[in-house]
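#random but structural
TW: two for the price of one
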Amino acid sequence: MIRVLIADDQGMVRTGFTVFLSAQPDIEVVGEAADGRQAIERAAELRPDVVLMDVRMPVMNGLEATGELVSRGGAAAPKVLILTTFDLDDYVYAALRAGASGFLLKDASATQLAEAVRVVAAGEALLAPTVTKRLIAEFTRLPGGRSPGHRRPNDLGELTEREMEVFLLVAQALSNQEIAEKLFVAEQTVKTHVGRVLMKLRLRDRAQAIVFAYETGLVRPGG
């Protein structure tokens, strides 16, 4: 069972998400929180696998709460799926830099929400298609962004030629299946390469890989 904590300042939203997700055979909603600070406290108490985190909440917003959850928990920290009604501002990059594993708009269908929970629980990164396009096209204007070539960690030298190839495709938000089709290899082979890339670069998941690739200048907007 995937244990989920729902953090949103609107009671009706929390109830709606809880009712739907609780009906899934592989998902259990273990608790709710009305603000970021409460989300951190409840996460420490309940140990969820995934936290559905709203962005705009009182006391502490979702981005601050995400950063604290990830930094406190280390490898044992829950995966955070950011839920918001906004896709036209700077939340995407800020959420990824804070350690979020996914970013989904609140107008997503109930089925998409359940699948998003499963995806981030499995260690994959998830970005709504419209959000992914904005992340790639507008990266350089976002606060906290880095100019190309800002840093190239020595860790990159540990990647084999094939691993680097896979890493660059991951950075473009391609799925394992899409990467497999591009490289003419089995999907399981891609999964193995991705795992090695994350381990060698000491990255938590694919979302961090996307941020890392842009900050090192390996991938550039529009290229």
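TW: number two ↓
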Amino acid sequence: MSAATEVALIALALATLAVAATRVPGVARVFLIAQAAFWSLSYVARPLVLLWVQPDPHFGDNVPDPRLAQFGYDRGIALVLHHVVFGLWVYAGFVVAYALWARRHPPRELPALTRDPDFVPTLAAMYCVGLLGRAASIASGSIGSAGDVDSASPILSFVAILATIAALGLIIFVRPATPRLTVLIIGGLLVGELAWTAIVESKTPIIGAAMAIAVRFAILGWTRAKAIGVGVIAVLGIGGFGWLQSLKQTKYVKAEASLADSSYPPIVHPFLSILRRFDLLEAATDAYFHQPGLWLTPAETLRHASASLVPSQLLGAAKFQSGTAWAQDVRGASVDMTKVSVSLAEGNLNEGYVLGGYPGVIVCAAFTFLLLLAWAKALYSRFFPVVVLGLALTGASALFERGILGSMENLGKFLQAAVLAWLISLVVREYRRRTTAEASPAVRAPAAAPVFVGAVTIEKRESPWG
């Protein structure tokens, strides 16, 4: 089949996914539609740009892939998308089946912790702690960027995660007394996440914030105005990503980027920065050239996935890093990576194909779908650490561009963040308990004091007016 046919089949599978998602009640609908949009940028928009422009590969521009150009874009894209077409239709089948089941099993009306008076104050405290971690990372120059293998300061990076998790939690769960205050709080949180997106050169924070707004509306109820608002935020975030990136670039880097962009039509220029970040087509190309097998056995995959949930300090050994291993072993099979050290997003379908061929694609698609259902249930949990895990997944890329190994690595990191968040919640609850106790009178007078007069008991009552 031609590349256009493969892309059309992918677009049809994603449209099926999106339509089925509209029939799914609750917050799961939000992530399913977001997945369809995310994967369309990688597997539809980027191939269409390559087929239209036919750009020549050169240094500094990762949109054209030399391996695809060597085959010819039409033939090359058709070859590398076979397993993606199969996997997306399998995933769409899962969603359709779940939509038919879920219509008869609606979720709870409101998440359990919305009735907890300590919940939002705990999220606010987490956000303050996380902001301190972000500020310390900026001051110490230990800010990482997309694709970095190791963080310059793992502790500061870990603390900074709390700000992202808490920002998403506040966007979803904060309920101020007035609409104006609501707009101010959520607007401030959005600006903060947009700024952090530019600082760390990653699309994840702003996408997570947009997701949080959509989840908020899914809980409170959708209206046409809310749907349009979420769409506008998403478009502005994606379209403005290149402008935010340019704020940190030197004149030389800007000139180099302008030279790379000059080979594309002007209508594409605003979206080139974000298309370069949606690189799952490159991962699909990696998987095709590597072919199934010769990377990890099922036993090794299970062992590495399980070890990812254990802190390195307790494990006593360095953890397996799937993004780094993918760059070295899978992409390294067709691209010279000897002088490059980077961590890559592999994608669930691509990882599944390399690990086990088409059966592996089915397993990884099922894992991502089950993880999404677990996320949706976690937000409604009455246990604070479980809700934190759900919030962390809201702002992570696990459900979009990671496979089993990468998702388990994220979960291991988020489990540690959930423990720290739980400790903060204990401090906040104790502080609020003591504050409330000090504000209350220490000894209350009895409501009624009996007075004995002879053999007759007369009850003396306090006046309700004091």
